[in-house]
Q: What sequence folds into this?
């Protein structure tokens, strides 16, 4: 059982495909001293965020995530090797349908009593008074609407499509955030008022690490910190790639693969370089693991979890909440 005196914190989890395994080690370490009030995530970070939003402790998160069979995540459109992924890419804009991970997440969340965002509603009178009713949830998932050219924060932005945020399935929002371009097929969101359809892809295309999600907009000092946990290869000069064998693609396709990977992995780097942002966020070194290497073995998964644990432990050992508020929030 977690200690009863854990400190409150909001949490933002970066996306990163398979690299997201490292987030698990960091989150478990964080849960030893803090309880998560609200959590935001993109792509792989959205999966873990969904479980944390249900109120699970460290053991509960470990138990749920351990049931995911990573080698089944890149599922098939049809039982025809090589041909099916190519046909899926050409006809449905994705090598894989993503049914397995969606069904797995929907099943696990249902077992925890969570189906729609209405099950994750949060009403805290101490929150930022500028928060609208449609922004008061324990979970925020990012996705990218490439039809309208905008970043979505779900469930906040469902109302822009004439949809009731409370009624939208959590698993559907997470699946949209997981739609790595060309790897998983995109999702479709239909405007209930006009019938217009939007194509949704990975939230990382526009913001993979939205650390500012829960920042107050009034003049009050924050009641507790927002921690950001990333999995960017900040210490690496490796070539970036989305597809498992992207480095061996012919020129034009290699360029497209690198462009998508760069968009997902580097979009937020300028913002994250700011001193006060770096004080509340940390990145786990996941060098050597590709975004879509879902056939990663048990030894590599253990290495990633251990890296997350060690990085979070080092960060928390140097964390100074009072100093951060004084120097970065202008409060005593």
A:
């Amino acid at each position: 059982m977690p200690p009863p005196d854990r400190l409150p914190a909001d949490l933002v989890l970066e996306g990163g495909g398979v690299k997201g395994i490292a987030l698990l080690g960091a989150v478990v370490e964080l849960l030893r001293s803090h309880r998560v009030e609200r959590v935001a995530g993109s792509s792989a970070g959205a999966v873990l965020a969904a479980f944390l939003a249900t109120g699970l402790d460290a053991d509960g998160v470990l138990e749920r995530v351990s049931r995911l069979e990573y080698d089944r995540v890149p599922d098939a459109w049809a039982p025809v090797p090589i041909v099916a992924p190519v046909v899926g890419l050409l006809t449905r804009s994705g090598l894989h349908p993503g049914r397995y991970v969606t069904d797995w997440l929907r099943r696990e969340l249902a077992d925890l009593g969570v189906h729609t965002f209405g099950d994750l509603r949060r009403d805290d009178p101490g929150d930022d008074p500028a928060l609208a009713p449609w922004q008061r949830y324990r979970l925020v998932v990012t996705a990218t609407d490439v039809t309208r050219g905008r970043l979505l924060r779900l469930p906040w932005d469902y109302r822009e499509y004439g949809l009731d945020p409370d009624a939208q399935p959590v698993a559907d929002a997470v699946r949209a955030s997981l739609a790595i371009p060309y790897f998983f097929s995109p999702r479709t969101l239909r405007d209930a008022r006009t019938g217009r359809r939007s194509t949704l892809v990975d939230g990382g295309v526009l913001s993979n690490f939205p650390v500012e999600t829960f920042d107050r907009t009034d003049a009050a000092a924050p009641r507790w910190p927002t921690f950001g946990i990333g999995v960017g290869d900040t210490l690496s000069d490796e070539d970036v790639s989305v597809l498992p064998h992207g480095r061996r693609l012919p020129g034009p396709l290699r360029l497209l693969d690198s462009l998508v990977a760069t968009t997902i992995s580097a979009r937020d780097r300028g913002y994250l370089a700011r001193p006060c942002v770096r004080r509340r966020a940390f990145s786990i070194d996941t060098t050597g693991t590709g975004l879509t290497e879902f056939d990663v073995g048990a030894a590599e998964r253990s290495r990633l979890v251990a890296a997350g644990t060690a990085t979070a432990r080092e960060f928390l050992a140097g964390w100074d909440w009072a100093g951060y508020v004084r120097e970065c929030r202008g409060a005593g």
Observations:
- The chain has one domain: 7-329.
- The beta strands are 7-13, 34-42, 94-96, 139-145, 150-154, 182-184, 187-190, 197-202, 226-230, 281-283.
- Residues 7-329 form a domain with the Cytosolic phospholipase A2 catalytic domain fold (CATH 3.40.1090.10).
- The chain has eleven helices and ten strands.
